[in-house]
C-alpha cells in the first residue's frame, strides 16, 4: 500500500499546478502495443509502440518507439535500461505539418505484486531527453506509475477472463524544467478500462484516459480513447 500512498500524495501536485493559465481541451485516440520477450530466466527484452491522433482524430500526430533490456532481480522486482524515439507532426498557422522529434534514454524499476486476486504494478522511471538533437534542450523527467488489474470473471490464477484496469502516472521535471514548462509538475495521466485476458501471454484493453499537461503558456486537458494490447512470450 505504500506505493498507493506515494502516488496519491504526488497527485496533489496536479491540483496545485492549475493556475490562471489558458485551459485547452482536446479529444484524441491512442493505440498502444507493449511486448515483453523472455530471453532467459534473468533477462527480458521490452518493446513498446504507441500512435496518437491529433485533436478530433484529425490526423496521426505522434509515433513513439521504445525498447529496453530488463534484468529480473526476482519474480517481483526488475530493473531496465532503454531508449525511446518520439516523432511529432503538428500543423502550423498555414496548416502545414511540421515535424519534430525527441530522443530519450531511460532507467526504470518495476515492482509487481498482488492484493488477493488483484494484480498490481508500481513503476518508477527517469528519462534523459533531447529535443531535435539540440544539446541545449536537454532535460530529465521522473515518472511514477501505479496500475491494477481487477478480475471480474476468472479462475483463481487469473489465466483468462474479463477484468477492470485502473492506472495513474504522474510526470515530474527533475532537471532543466525551464526547457519544458518551468514547473516541477509536467503532466498526469489517469486511465480506466475494460480488458480481456486471452491467456497469461496476451491482454487487451479499451478505455478512457484523462491526460492533463502543463505547458509554458497553457494547460491541456485531453480526453483520450485508448486501445491497448499487451503480450508476453
The sequence of SSEs as H and E is: HEEEEEEEEEEE
Question: Number of helical segments?
Answer: 1
Helix percent band: under 10%
- Overall shape: it is globular
Number of strands: 11
Major sheet: arrangement of strands: 1-2-3-4-5-6-7-8-9-10-11
Per DSSP, what share of the residues sits in E-state strands of 2 or more residues?
over 45%
Number of domains: 1
Structural class by helix and strand composition: mainly beta
Ends: how far apart? 29 Å
Oligomer: single chain
* Mean pLDDT reading: 91
Q: Pick out the low-confidence regions.
A: none
Main sheet attributes: strand count, strand direction, barrel closure: 11 strands, mixed, barrel
What's the Cα radius of gyration?
Answer: 18 Å
Question: How does this structure look, described?
Answer:
With 233 residues, the chain is mainly beta. It has one domain (2-36, 104-232). Helix content is 6%, strand content 69%. The protein is built from 1 helix and 11 strands, in the order αβββββββββββ. Strand 6 and strand 7 form a beta hairpin. The chain is globular.
Summarize the SSE layout with pairings.
Blueprint: H1 2-16, E1 22-38, E2 43-53, E3 60-72, E4 77-91, E5 97-115, E6 118-131, E7 139-151, E8 161-175, E9 185-199, E10 202-214, E11 218-232
Parallel strand pairs: 1-11
Antiparallel strand pairs: 1-2, 2-3, 3-4, 4-5, 5-6, 6-7, 7-8, 8-9, 9-10, 10-11
